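Researcher: Here's my situation. A collaborator sent me these components and asked whether they could plausibly form a single complex. I don't have experimental data yet, so a predicted model of the whole assembly would be a useful starting point for our discussion.
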Amino acid sequence: LRRYRARILVVAACVASAASVGWGAVIAVNNTQALSFGNFVASSGGSVTVGASGARSRSGGVFLVPSGTGAAAQFALSGDPNAVYSIGLPINGVVSMGNGANSMAVNNFTSSPASSGQLGVGGSQTLLVGATLSVGANQASGRYSGNFSITVDYN
Amino acid sequence: MQSNFKFQAIKLVLAGAFAVTGISATAAGASADAGGSVITPITVTKTTDLVFGRFAHGAGAGSVTVSTSGARTGTGVILSTTGATPGAASFTVTGAADATYSISQSGSATLTGVGDPMALTKFSNTTGANEITGDAQNGILTGGTQIIYIGGTLTVSATQATGTYAGTVGVAVEYN
């Protein structure tokens, strides 16, 4: 009898486990496009901002080279249909792009959707991320690169 | 003995519950590259002036043309072989290698001096070829540099006063 009761309890625990897993497919996120600030002339320095829409703007003495357009980062999300999720973007002061001994800070990350979103009926959505690049006066010319991470979670 | 068994059973259930919690942690993260290129500023400096040299007006209206390669021809005027050597204006553009840029011209529509102003029309190219028409509106910085050549045609009246006439020829460049 004691063994029998033990089996019943173990089976019950497994059923509870299976049922709990059933309600929440793990949300997945994949990077499909890099964040690009394009080509620009530093001059007296300033900033280059790429919005979540991909639109590029500048401040200070920075000149944006028209043919060297930027792009927002793109992430493909998938999970439960219609699930609401929250977005975690890098905080200021942690991301930079480098080229040898030179670097430029990347701050003020923005996203579309902003702070939270909702997956579509098919359980997927595209998340776009932009940011602002700080450009020094006479910033050394060259190709700068870096990387950043985001997180998403069900609400 | 029986109470001991219950304790085991509770532990099993708890283990099951923790397992569920672990599996349903749904946060996910991804990393993306970020990049951008700082481009060398584009600059333009004058290398040579546009020089029409010395000439005399004829019986009627005439003109003096200096091609983009600096070759001088005259119509209805008398060209002198002495005096300043004729030549096309040239401007040296530097910037990012292989970048394309736009060219806009500025400067005088006439050369002025002691007599009536002489109308100036200009033409340009980036090859240095011998041309007297056309305008280079865009260029490419192959190897990070290119030269813009500007020639012109000067209209000379039959009564053009003797003296020195001058004006300006300018270009502005901007990355495309």
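Model: Some features of this prediction you could bring to your collaborator: Helices of chain A lie at 2-23. The two ends of chain A are 44 Å apart (CA to CA).
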